[in-house]
Design a protein that fits this description.
The chain has helices spanning 3-26, 29-62, 66-72, 81-95, 107-116, 123-136, 138-171, 175-227, 232-240, 246-259, 264-275, 278-290, 295-357. It has 358 residues and is mainly alpha-helical. The N and C termini lie far apart (61 Å).
Length: 358
């Protein structure tokens, strides 16, 4: 490597490290507060997930008996209280100003965003905001989005700068190995940062699939309870408490909003935003439109929606099966080729051996 090129790359990588350090130094109390709030939100989400998992596993075990129950109890966790309490204690320490568990490595990213307006109202920001709104609600979406963008900016800057410096250091001994270290390092950092961005979209997609699968059962329960004469508010609560999946969790959140005197428009609007599927939007909109029309009309509407949702569920299952079949084509062909090779090679070798014998 020419010395001039080496020197230019060294200077640029060093500037990247120094810039990260300067941004870290410029991070103030507001950036530290943002990182602390994100940690609390993250802990609360994990606590809710653990509690929900315990309830699901407890229900599964209650349906078993004898040796099956004893065996499955070894694998199904029904008491995560130790981890839950640890997270709650961590939140208390953060709220009391003890920030040792807060991720300080994202602080330079916050400084870059504040000083240079990076990602401000851009496409990446809007995409992450919408995904975080579905996962955590609009109340926490902005904080989560800014934290993710700060982490992506900070990790990219320091990560790429450090692996380039490492590659240059190795290149003084072996140029080829140094280039490989630098190139692979930059690639790994890029993949890691993109994985942070893509992970949110993957969680949202998985959550939507779960909601779509559960929706027909939920609407059927609502329609049945409404037909029995139960009022809408009570029907919603009873249905919400009958399951533990993502859709039931969002229904419980809506029930809590209504109990806290939040208007039905705002509560069901939040439900629509968090679920963000055409099925749940149709359900919440129908409830809002028919709240003043009495149980009879809502019950009839829910029955119709139930029939439509079950039909859509069948079509959805068919589409998923077709996608699965398409994904299996390549592995099936590879397996077929492998089997043919295993069969044909010994036969060819036998024929070859026989001809030599003649």
């Amino acid at each position: 490597m020419p010395f001039v090129v080496f020197l230019v790359i060294l200077v640029l990588a060093s500037i990247g490290v120094l810039f990260w350090i300067v941004m870290f130094a410029l991070a103030g109390d507001e950036e530290m507060k943002q990182s602390a709030i994100k940690k609390i939100i993250q802990n609360n989400a994990l606590i809710a997930e653990l509690e929900n998992k315990d309830q699901i596993n407890t229900l599964k075990l209650s349906r078993m008996s004898g040796a099956e129950r004893v065996f499955m109890s070894l694998f199904l966790t029904v008491d995560s209280s130790k981890e839950i309490n640890r997270r709650k204690e961590e939140n208390k320490r953060i709220q009391n100003g003890k920030l040792s568990s807060v991720n300080i490595f994202v602080l330079p990213g916050y400084s870059v965003m504040r000083i240079f307006g990076l990602f401000e109202n851009g496409r990446i920001y809007k995409t992450l905001f919408m995904n975080n709104a579905e996962l955590f609600g609009r109340k926490n979406a902005e904080k989560n989005t800014k934290y993710m963008l700060a982490a992506m900016a900070s990790y990219s800057l320091i990560g790429i700068s450090l692996v380039i410096l490492a590659g240059l250091l190795v290149s003084t001994v072996n140029l080829t190995i140094g280039a490989i270290v630098g190139g692979v390092g930059v690639l790994l950092v890029s993949v890691f940062v993109y994985a942070m961005y893509d992970d949110v979209a993957s969680k949202v997609a998985k959550r939507k699939r779960e909601i779509v699968r559960e929706f027909p059962s939920v609407v059927s329960k609502l329609a049945l309870l409404m037909s029995s004469g139960m009022i809408m508010a009570r029907t919603w609560v009873e249905t919400a408490n009958s399951g533990f999946s993502a859709l039931y969790t969002e229904m419980k959140a809506t029930s809590n909003d209504l109990e806290n005197n939040i208007s039905p428009e705002e509560a069901y609007g939040g439900f629509i935003t968090r679920c963000n599927t055409k099925e749940t939007s149709k359900l919440a909109s129908a409830i809002l439109q028919n709240l003043s029309k009495g149980n009879a009309e809502i019950a009839e509407h829910l029955r119709n929606l139930s029939r439509e949702s079950w039909q859509e569920r069948k079509h959805y299952a068919k589409r998923e099966a077709e996608k699965a079949n398409a994904k299996l084509i390549v592995p099936t062909m590879l397996l077929f080729v492998t089997i043919m090779i295993i069969i044909m090679v010994p036969i060819a070798m036998n024929f070859s051996g026989g001809s030599f014998g003649f």
